[in-house]
Design a protein that fits this description.
The structure holds 2 protein chains of 2 kinds. In chain A, about 0% of the residues lie in helices and about 50% in strands. Chain A is mainly beta. The chains are: A mainly beta, B mainly beta.
Chain lengths: ~120, ~110
């Protein structure tokens, strides 16, 4: 089974702290994605990556950065956490150019609270 | 990106079929219709996808209108474990290489009544 793991299920940070959210997948997928999910807004794409050291902005990249130094690992970085970044963060991965399904596999999510 | 419209919520009785509608009137010829669902406290999971013909798999069936402006996800016999948010998503397979993202809406929250 494909497995996408995220470093924490729950995280509490203070305003201004630097926050790292880690995601690891074990299926040798080229694509990796970071989303945030907020009530009434659905899932929104923050950043994605289709190869090591490659990154592309999603729909809401402001206030975030990412790092992909190894194929299996995709990190989301909040340089200076703010209260409006309190949210559920979801990581996903998929094969590159897998055809029509290109099924995305999601991790369990990290609920981040910034106080 | 072409948009989809789904009802915010639906209810269904346990062990009965469920029909979840999705409108996508601006669908293009290269858009595939994907469905994902999100169970409580979990990340979304793939359910099914299709282009023009109806599709079946172990989880569900997908019925696509002849003009492709709408589709329906069918759960043949709902169980309590099917209670989830269901997302209908269009994916253009003509997109640039390396840009295989999905755009999720807010989905339909399905409640199963015992």
């Amino acid at each position: 089974d494909v497995k996408v793991t995220q470093s924490s299920r729950y995280l509490v940070k203070r305003t201004g702290e630097k926050v790292f959210l880690e995601c690891v997948q074990d299926m040798d997928h080229e694509n990796m994605f970071w989303y945030r999910q907020d009530p009434g807004l659905g899932l929104r794409l923050i950043y994605f990556s289709y190869d090591v050291k490659m990154k592309e902005k999603g729909d809401i990249p402001e206030g975030y950065s990412v790092s992909r130094e190894k194929k299996e690992r995709f990190s989301l970085i909040l340089e200076s956490a703010s209260t409006n970044q309190t949210s559920m963060y979801l990581c996903a991965s998929s094969l590159l150019g897998a055809g029509l399904a290109n099924e995305q596999y999601f991790g369990p999510g990290t609920r981040l609270t910034v106080t | 990106d072409a948009k989809t419209t789904q009802p915010n919520s639906m209810e269904s009785n346990e062990e009965e079929p469920v029909h979840l509608p999705c409108n996508h009137s601006t669908i293009s010829g290269t858009d595939y219709i994907h469905w994902y669902r999100q169970l409580p406290s979990q990340g979304p999971e793939y359910v099914i996808h299709g282009l023009t013909s109806n599709v079946n798999n172990r989880m569900a069936s997908l019925a696509i209108a002849e003009d492709r402006k709408s589709s329906t996800l069918i759960l043949h016999r709902a169980t309590l474990r099917d209670a989830a948010v269901y997302y209908c998503i269009l994916r253009d397979v003509k997109v640039n290489f390396g840009n295989e993202k999905l755009t999720f809406g807010t989905g339909t929250r399905l409640t199963i009544i015992p």
